User: Fold these one by one.
Assistant:
Number 1:
Amino acid sequence: MNCLQSWPEPVVRVQHLSESGITSIPDRYVKKPSDRPVFLESSIGSELNINMPVINMANLYSDDVLLQQKTADLIVDACREWGFFQVVNHGVSHGLMARSREVWREFFKLPPEEKQKYANEPRTYEGYGSRLGVEKGISLDWGDYFFLNYLPIGIRDQNKWPSLPFSCRELIAEYSEEVVKLGGKLMKIFSSNLGLREYYLEEAFGGEGNMSGCMRVNYYPKCPQPDLTLGLSPHSDPGGFTILSPDENVSGLQVRRDGGWVTVDPMPNAFIINIGDQLQILSNSKYKSVEHRVIVNSAKERLSLAFFYNPRGDMLI
Ligand code: OGA
Ligand code: NI
């Protein structure tokens, strides 16, 4: 492991590149031909008729026991087959979701000096960042981000969260609290669906209130050559599971499916849930942690909020 305390070369903000008006992207962002996205035919799930399952969470608490069971079964199938699903009627206020995305859009519109106050370092990644990895000369993705820790409370440091826009810290706290509640409900369902006690996974994650939760706000600026690069290279999420609030206007997330990439068609006000590596392991690989990536486009920027619901840092999985 490389334990550099700082970046090996000056950090370039992708937003800055995008706004500078360049018509071709620097080589560092150009992916090798086999890794580039294909825009020729439609890859949108709904057009291919293979969209990921959409779960109405209200049905899990219905008086109709059959409907409850059917919905739980849909989640099992989604976790096994896709590693991904969308949830509606999830209990998080739609207004809060929209306001949270909006406040982050405003953050990225702030002057560079203001954002620079939160510039991150590879030791913790906390703050405003533009790259992952400290290897000199590595290929870069077309995106900036803000990474912050929410749980456990011991590592939460609100001074590292943006103080501007004014409502940002408050919204982060309110949004994260609601999302963690949703995560708790999903944990029970994931446990029961494995035939385990409702609290099994919660305990495996470190016990009530001890799990780890962090957020990565992804900002993908407009790109003059979207066919040459990616907003986020293929990866699986390393932790428990992810609760993603995608951009309401622009799609971009692609999920590995039968050797190809399916572009997710987000439902309004839905969250996209995906299984991470550690939950795959805890489930004895019944649930799949599936590779995904993000494509960018030349017409619109894209913003997403990824909340990672993870086991406590020192849990043995
Ligand atoms: C992530 C991620 C997807 C997106 O942050 O791990 O996969 O749509 N984000 O931004
Ligand atoms: Ni991811």
Number 2:
Amino acid sequence: MANAVNTIGVLTSGGDAPGMNAAIRGVVRTALSLGMKVKGIQKGYHGLLNEEIIDMDAHSVSNTIDRGGTILYTARCMRFYDEEGQKQGAEICKKHGIEGLVVIGGDGSFQGAQKLAGLGINTIALPGTIDLDIACTDYTIGFDTAVNTAMQAIDKIRDTSTSHERCSIIEVMGRNAGHIALWCGIANGAEDILIPSKYDHDEERIIQEIIANKKRGKKHHIIVNAEGVGHSTEMAQRLEKATGVETRATILGHMQRGGSPTCKDRVYASVMGAMAAELLAAGKSNRVIAQRGGEFVDLDINEALAMSKDVDEYMYKVSGLLCR
Ligand code: ADP
Ligand code: F6P
């Protein structure tokens, strides 16, 4: 059966995430195997508006599955928030023969894809963000690598924290979400996990806990603080003053976004990329690929964007029981 579209484009948008290259590779190689042509749009919607568009063949994605970052580069683009920019983007797609587009990014990028779908470009979105903050899916490309990178960094901080009998506050990324903080908090055996949607800002409780733990002979006190709570350096100064326990803050920052993707990120991103190409070949549009209940599924982007989620309640409860 003939494909519904002959030429597709692929772009990465918003913050990069490890595994994006595996997703691009999945899109490109699957589309080629189905007989479609593939164009890579560099630097997200910004590059689309600047017509930074390249032809891609099977070789374009060779030696990329193990690479962090995105070979197509990424950007944030203010012009794309406006109808004018979106219309121009759709026109540029048409000019280059791009009938279908795979957008790999977070829910901001999904909204751009939704707008292009409304303007006649078939779009499929893939969840690419280290933050895991896309409501429709249990998995986002890059989270597994990021959380492992952060976990390993916190293990190292814990070593020196124990040697010096210090308190350490480690700030992890996640924008307004607390998934990275919760996972690291559990994985690193943190004494406190501060998450935007849960933290009550009761610093006195933390102070009393640090003092009590010190009395019990604990050699360190690890606080994993989410970016959305922030202010780690100031918090460290306040805690040290109130407890008398030396306290240091470390902001892990962008190191969490880099590095070679884990096996899970490579495999899941590859599968999602392949599914995106197949959906475009079948004439689907305005869909997002998600993982729900262990299965890969596609959902309407409008429905996906209307969903909301917080950190897993049971995991959060368990984290509180284990922080002793
Ligand atoms: P993420 O995709 O990781 O959530 P952003 O929210 O920064 O990251 O969005 C990435 C880009 O997607 C933005 O710079 C903009 O170009 C585009 N975008 C975001 N929101 C919209 C929107 N409401 N309409 C159209 N484009 C959008
Ligand atoms: O969305 C990914 C993310 O790394 C967030 O965790 C963080 O808040 C943001 O991007 C940082 O963005 P920038 O790269 O613009 O500093």
